[in-house]
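Hi support team,

I submitted a single chain yesterday and got back a structure, but I'm not sure I'm reading the token output correctly. Could someone confirm the output below corresponds to the sequence I sent? I've pasted both exactly as they appear in my results page.

Thanks,
R.
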Amino acid sequence: MKRIPIFLLFICSIISISAFAQLTSPKAKWTYSFSKPEVKKGETVDLVFTAAIEKDWYMYSSDFDPDLGPMLTTVSFERNNSFEVVGKLKPQNPKTKFEEVWNGNVKYFEGKAVFKQTIKVLTDNPVIKGTSEYQTCSNVTGLCVAGGEDFEFKGLKVAAGTATAAAEQPVNAEKTNPDSSGKIESAAAVPAPANTDSTFSKLSENTSASDNTTEESAAGGSLWGFALAAFLSGLVALLTPCVFPIIPMTVSYFTNQQGGKVKAFVYGASIILIYTLIGTVVSRLNGPAFANFLSTHWLPNLLFFAIFIVFGLSFLGLFEIVLPSGFVNKMDQKADKGGYAGVFFMAFTLVLVSFSCTGPIVGSLLVASAGGEVVKPIIGMAAFSAAFAIPFTSFALFPQWLKSLPKSGGWLNTVKVVLGFLELALALKFFSIADQVYHWGLLDREIYLAFWIVIFALLGFYLLGKIRTPHDSVLEKVSVPRLLLSIITFTFVIYMLPGMWGAPLKALAGYLPPQSTLDFDLNKRSAGVAAGANSAEIAGKYSDLFHLPHELTGFFDYKEGLEYAKKVNKPVFIDFTGHGCVNCREMEARVWVDPAVMQRLRNDYVIIALYVDDKTELPEKDWYTSNYDKKVKKTIGAQNADLQIVKYNNNAQPHYCLVDHDGKLLVKPKNYDLNPANFAAFLDSGKEAFSK
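Hi R., thanks for writing in. Yes, this is the structure output for that exact sequence:
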């Protein structure tokens, strides 16, 4: 029998993710200091930005033609009344060279870059924070990587007294004021109003503090209440389809382990540790986009798809996944080393795979983490992952009990084969996410259903003993439990069959591709849709890429939808959704379809569906640099996700906002809620607020 070392699977997944992160990671380390340690109020001081650049890499300066092509180094400040920016960012002795790719002279630094920015101190305790944006390129490969990070200057002493009267007058000089594209403008230096930002992206230029009221922030509450909510969210996350494929992996792995109880608890602790680190530390460094990358990018999804196909085929008996023999011998001698490393890799795989579904659930935590909060995200992620870890720790303990049962070998092989069929079926979810996000059109709804119908039909025949795998013994008679399971399986197959021609299949809403991908839908052809005020044909932007469910009509561009709503004088229903959002599909299939909800959506609102994970690249003229993470937003999904974070202070999907014609919230937003009556009441409250 063929054997595949289990570490090859784990190492492949780790190397793929790590390599991608390494290629796109910044190549400079920044430090911050003052030109002098002490000043008087009203005096100026230079902020010194120093970057240590990696070997064989160089960084572009800030003082050459911004239209030439490369990304210039810029800094932007969180504006407040404690200091005033004077003049522009000043690079210290950059080098100059001609670059053919840009057809012009550029200024750059190698090894070390120093920039100075003059500020005027206005209070005794200036708060000096902001973000930097820069680009580094490799002298070896030519690869260029954009970077950016938050900065804060601390330790400046403000002596008693003030500067001379002349020094206290506004400085008639230029100050740095990056616009949304990252270019530097000039303006008279006057104190900026408190709690404002000098940069505004195209999508969020009308954002105000009152707009950022969300369900989560409005709720407030103590850390204990927040931790409890996070714990309950972890329990909900266990019901997502990305988690189910890990169950047979866990059972199979721990069945063959020694010292199961201790390792099971190590497994649970590793899940909590890794989840907390990924959710707080990594998100703080890379922002909520990291979770979106794990959830929707083709690389992790196809990698997970391949891994689960391999595990499924292994469970069916095609080959056996084992630890290397030499490693097993070492584990026998030093159990505390090798065995626990394998347990850690299992936990690491669980965390990575589950992010495809749990990333959106913990989106608010990731926003808080990337936005600067420390304690709250850590407590929230620890509570979330604790709920997540408890059942898997139990699964890790359970196989040890199975092994002690008499004559358990044949029965365990049957369980393993059943899990193998389930593994093959559930693996399709990962391929489906990538297929929808990138519009490949390879796994439409009917193809997906055809795979599932065949897989579960074969499972039913296996349970009846009509199919045997390599390790099965002859089944002389069918036990009652197997017969009952086969009945359930074939019932499930029959339930899926009408879905090939348009049946909604509500129970599988979160697992299947959208109804709009179905090529032949009898519902559309034989049942007319009730006409309403919102049912007129609307051919707006991206209508060739996206479709609303249940023959609803609406928009897929934020500004276009607001303009139309103003024209028809209706409130706006914004649906922040995603191709890979399981809960979004479930809400659409089980809540939107309710007659009371459908009537309100169709007649009372202008619908705007904004996909936050779509990878369709926009024309370069539509790109902009986000205020939130200072990164260029080039795709439909990136711009929609940035809008949700910046304007509505949320990163979870589904997220429903009822707004007026200016995009301001009418009522508190709503997330996942399967109660149609609650959702109808939510829509009524928005309509009432709009009428007032």
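A quick pointer for reading it: The chain has 21 helices and 22 strands. Let us know if anything else looks off.

Best,
Support desk
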